Amino acid sequence: MEASETARRVESNSEQMVNARNRRQIEANVAYFAQRLDQIEERLEELDQEWDVERSLETNASILALFGLGLGIFWKKALVLPMVVTAFLLQHAIQGWCPPLPIMRRLGIRTMHEINKERYALKALRGDFEGLGEEQEQGDSLEKAAKATEAADLH
Questions:
Q1: What whole-number distance in Å separates Cα of residue 14 and Cα of residue 154?
Q2: pLDDT tens digits for range 124-141
Q3: C-alpha 105: how far from chain center
Q4: Which of 117, 128, 135 is nearest to 27 (CA)?
Q5: Contacts by residues 44-53 (CB-CB < 8 Å, ≥ 24 positions apart)
Q6: What span, in angstroms and rounded, lies between the C-alpha atoms of 141 and 150?
């Protein structure tokens, strides 16, 4: 599996409806900030704080596993919980999918690739990348947003 396939395996194992919703949201966010260039820095800071699906999955799995281990001290049957959770993590590591993933995706938790796509598009709007600044001068803000989103697909 090449790097780009590995980076996008959660998306490839997600419902197309969820991926399409996230794509539309990214486009809407970029279009919004194309008209509010002075607010891009604040949005970039928000994106820096956003948890991606991998981090959320790992954190929730760790909490459940620790809870199950703690409960297992008093009730041995509770040790099934950490076994199931770690099996899900292993499945996710191997396949890029596990049972909690569709739920997390429907809740709007994005992949790092999706977060970075918005980040790069906003940076392109701001003029951070060479060669894009000249194109930005032309057209209205919606055209700029479309060009920035397209440029973000390249990263």
A1: 21
A2: 999 888 664 454 455 677
A3: 9
A4: 117
A5: 44/119, 44/122, 44/123, 47/115, 47/118, 47/119, 47/122, 50/110, 50/115, 51/109, 52/109, 52/110, 52/111, 52/112, 52/115, 53/10, 53/101, 53/104, 53/105, 53/109, 53/110, 53/111
A6: 14
| Over residues 103-108, mean pLDDT | 96
Q: What is the pLDDT of residues 57-102, one digit of tens each?
A: 999 999 999 999 999 999 999 999 999 999 999 999 999 899 999 9
Closest CA to 105 of 60, 57, 47: 57
Angle CA 17–55–22, to nearest 5 = 20
Mean pLDDT across the chain, nearest whole number? 88
CA distances in angstroms from 55 to 6, 31, 61, 69, 126, listed in the order given: 16, 28, 10, 21, 28
